[in-house]
Amino acid sequence: MTYFPLMLNLRDRPVLLIAGGPETGAKLQALLEAQAQVTVLAEEDHWNLADLAKEGRIRWLPRGYREGDLEGFFLVVSHPRDKGIHPQVKAEAERRRVFLVAVDDPKNATAILPAVVRRGELVVALSTSGAAPALAVRLKERFLRLLGPEYGELVPYLRRLRPRIAEIPCFEERKRLWYRLVDLALEELDLDPEAGLTRAKEKVEEVLAEVQPWTR
């Protein structure tokens, strides 16, 4: 199956987590980091649900899934102890036009979660389209070694350059300049991960000083 890769903004959006499986804690943490409004269905509290609910970080319903539970949700992540409920959950999700992440059950899912490498605002998502999750995890481990924190620190610096470069009226000139700057920065990071970011910024500023005055 061919999936369409997509980054979702879940901030303040209602998300239902049907809990119980071994990765429940990790899925819950990821949703909280995305600042979603999380409702958790879980018969037992193995993930500090009561404390999180008391703090107002989640809404916890201490029971399993029931027909009608998906109403009003933007996304559903289902990771119950018994995946036998997934056909019923999928049927409701289809009726309500809600995307369903059925963890470790791709045949009942309409969306899947990739393995993620996160360095600040730099996010790399890896997926095998549900075919071999272990491979995606091992590739994630390699990317974690390849992309140190300095790559994440580069992103906000480049973002701050956007208003300056946007002043260049010609799209093709802006495009060429962007790739030139990014290539310079990556070259410095590859040569020296520890000091490369400082040197990269210096080289970028040197280039900007050479081009049109509106980038100064």
From TrEMBL:
It comes from Thermus scotoductus. This is precorrin-2 dehydrogenase. InterPro entries: Met8-like, NAD(P)-bd_dom_sf, SirC_C, Sirohaem_synthase_N. The keyword Repeat does not apply. Keywords: NAD, Oxidoreductase, Porphyrin biosynthesis. It comes from the Bacteria. The keyword Zinc does not apply. Its EC number is 1.3.1.76. GO terms for molecular function: ferrochelatase activity; precorrin-2 dehydrogenase activity. It catalyses: precorrin-2 + NAD(+) = sirohydrochlorin + NADH + 2 H(+). GO terms for biological process: siroheme biosynthetic process. Pathway: Porphyrin-containing compound metabolism; siroheme biosynthesis; sirohydrochlorin from precorrin-2: step 1/1.
